[in-house]
Amino acid sequence: MSTFSFLTKLTGYRWGLYILNALAWSLIYLAPIVPGLVTKQFFDVLSGSAPYRFGVWSLIGFLMLAALARVVLILFGFITDVQFRFRIGALLRRNLLRHVLKEPGARAIPISPGEAISSFRDDVDQVEETVSWSVDAFGMTFFAAVSIFILMRINAEMTLLVFLPLVVVVTVAQLSTSLLQKYRAASREATSQVTGAISEMFSTVQSIQVAGAEDRVIGRFSRLNDLRREAMLKDKLLGSALDSIFSNTVNFGTGLILLLAAQSMRSGSFTVGDFALFVYYLTFVMQFIQNFGKFMTYFKQSAVAKDRLTHLLQGAPEAILTEHHPLYLRTAIPEAVTAQPGEVDLLERIEVRGLTYRYPESGRGIEAVDLDLPRGSFTVVTGRIGSGKTTLVRALLGLLPIQAGVICWNGKPVEAPGDFFIPPRSAYTPQIPRLYSDTLANNILLGLDAGEERLRRAIASAVLEPDLDRLPHGLDTVIGPRGVKLSGGQAQRTAAARMFVRDAQLMVVDDLSSALDVETERKLWERLEEERQGAACLVVSHRKAALARADKIIVLRNGRIDDTGRLEELLQRNEELRSLWYREE
Ligand SMILES: Nc1ncnc2c1ncn2[C@@H]1O[C@H](COP(=O)(O)OP(=O)(O)OP(=O)(O)O)[C@@H](O)[C@H]1O
Predict the structure, then answer these.
(1) Is the pLDDT of residue 261 over 90?
(2) Which of 70, 398, 437, 491 is 20 to 30 A away from residue 128, measured at CA?
């Protein structure tokens, strides 16, 4: 999509407001035409070149009125401008965020969070700025056309001399914009790198300290800042050089006009009023030239911004960015519709055939995995480190975009696993849980309206009660980055409680071994058995307590199924399982 059609589609979100805005700004830019003519009349009256029609005070009154009208118009123009640009900026951010949230977890954003924040903030601002400046371009062009017409009628030769610099400036700007575009992209990139580095440093403070890497990290940060300074300097220098060319070319034109006007006035072909009109309009023409150049620069810069925003889409159609959706600025945002237990198709059986996902970066992952998860089953996926266990559960749940294979729920193919495998159909305890700076209860519920009893049951199933007693405010203790820091095991059990409270029909648990000692693990599986009410469990584990309980064990090796069966059979015939089992011992 070209930058022009991108901006047009975005503008189309609020055509009415845009037209109102363009109208307001066109009037604001056209407004000086009237005081210009009044000024001309004023001087012609004073110098006796025009008949005395209005008194001097009426002329002053006209000028005041024109100024007042312009002030009111500018006020109106600012209101329409702010209303319009806020809406298109918000739409762009909304569409991007929605796309990011819909992507499978592993593909959410192709850059660091810091860089993504930069892009959401600066690139969207840039696009907003360009669309907003387009109305100024219209207004200024109208003004230029009308004033040229009036001035040409007075003195065509001099008028050309006023507008000649314009052609020069526009040409220079056009020639240098590709260079400016390059510098702008480099400076944005360098800024993102710095923001990204800050975000990485803050999130890994402990690792940096443990590794004694402070000096190296600061050194790298300093190098990134140097690169940014260089890139910003080039960008700003070229921008300012262009600005200065714009204004000085016009100043040069002004000088020429003054010389020519003096000569014609002496010869009597040019009145004082004409002179006043030329000088008066010239100020605005200067503004037009500078601002038009600025608009063209913005336009080029928004091409860079658009490319960076498109990069965040990771190959999805660009049209996503400009899709029209409600923003709910004045009305309440509708509640998200989530299915309740009992409203979804009750699980009978999940069948997975040929599930394949290979990480593009390493070429490793899983290949042609088949899986059957009947209602009430307890399936354990096991294998060595790196055999593909996590990849398998994440691909099944739609957290990785599967490259081949089909997943069926009760015989019906699941089109978008990421949207489908959510509570109350499924719930998941990942290997590395994320906790938020909020109370323990809110971390478990995450907005779910579950009631005290269900929450207590989930905590018991996750064997989290002993930890609860030790927290200063129990369930109301603030945990996470800004609160009490939980141990790795406690964090994982909190994540398990988060899964249990959702009463899902498929429960997926990725390796709880670091969260549980042998005794606690036994308790957890026992309580799960009592509470799960027929839910199917898919558990990644190499621990005996889980393997011994499994209806079926799936042994993965190098991303493929090595064998499947019950523990006793596999211990007899599968070398891989035997080595895992006895290593545990
Ligand atoms: N983000 C990634 N990018 C590239 N390769 C990856 C990525 N994540 C995992 N892999 C590779 O894919 C393979 C399977 O990884 P996976 O995490 O599924 O193994 P696992 O059996 O769950 O290991 P563990 O027991 O350590 O959890 C490994 O060889 C790993 O190196």
Answers:
(1) no
(2) 70
Delineate the domains of the chain, giving CATH numbers in brackets: 3-314 (1.20.1560.10), 349-584 (3.40.50.300)
Q: In what order do the strands lie in the sheet with 412-413?
A: 365-374, 349-358, 404-409, 412-413
The pTM assigned to this predicted structure is 0.71
What is the atom index within ligand 1 of the atom nearest the CA of 540?
22
Please state, as a whole number, how many other Cβ atoms lie within 10 Å of the Cβ of residue 388: 24
Ligand 1 centroid to Cα of residue 406, in Å, is 21
Which atom of ligand 1 lies at the shortest distance from residue 366's CA? 14
Q: How far apart are CA 583 and CA 585, in angstroms?
A: 5
| Residue 479 pLDDT level (bands cut at 50, 70, 90) | confident
Ligand 1 proximity of 388 Cβ (cutoff 6 Å) = yes
Q: Ligand 1 pocket check: which of 364, 384, 402 to mutate, most ligand atoms within 8 Å of Cβ? A: 364
Task: Read off the pLDDT of residues 548-578 as tens digits, 9 standing for 90 and up.
Answer: 999 999 999 999 999 999 999 999 999 998 9
Q: Please, which residues have CB within 8 angstroms of residue 483's CB and are 6 or more apart in sequence?
A: 437, 438, 477
- Taking the CA atoms of 220, 221, 222 and 226 in sequence, report the sign of the dihedral they define: positive
Which residues 6+ apart lie within 8 Å of 85 measured at CB?
128, 129, 131, 132
**pLDDT (tens digit, 9 = 90+) per residue, 170-187?**
667 667 767 887 898 899
CB 155 within 8 A of CB 264: yes
C-alpha to C-alpha distances, 289 to 29, 168, 359, 519, nearest whole angstrom: 13, 10, 53, 79
Are 381 and 374 in contact by the 8 Å Cβ rule? The answer is: no
Which residue lies with its CA nearest to atom 30 of ligand 1? 386
3-state SS of the chain: helix, strand, coil percent to 5? 65, 10, 25
Phi, psi (deg, nearest 5) at residue 91: -65, -45
Output the CA 64–ligand 1 centroid distance in Å.
75
CA of 366 to the centre of ligand 1 (A): 9
For 2, the 3-state DSSP assignment is coil
Render 205-245 in DSSP notation, one character per residue.
HHHHHHTT-HHHHHHHHHHHHHHHHHHHHHHHHHHHHHHHH
For residues 321 and 123, what is the distance between their CA atoms, to the nearest angstrom? 13
What tens digit of pLDDT does each residue of 398-409 get?
Answer: 988 889 999 999
Between CA 4 and CA 91 the distance in angstroms is 18
491 contacts 435 by C-beta, under 8 angstroms: yes
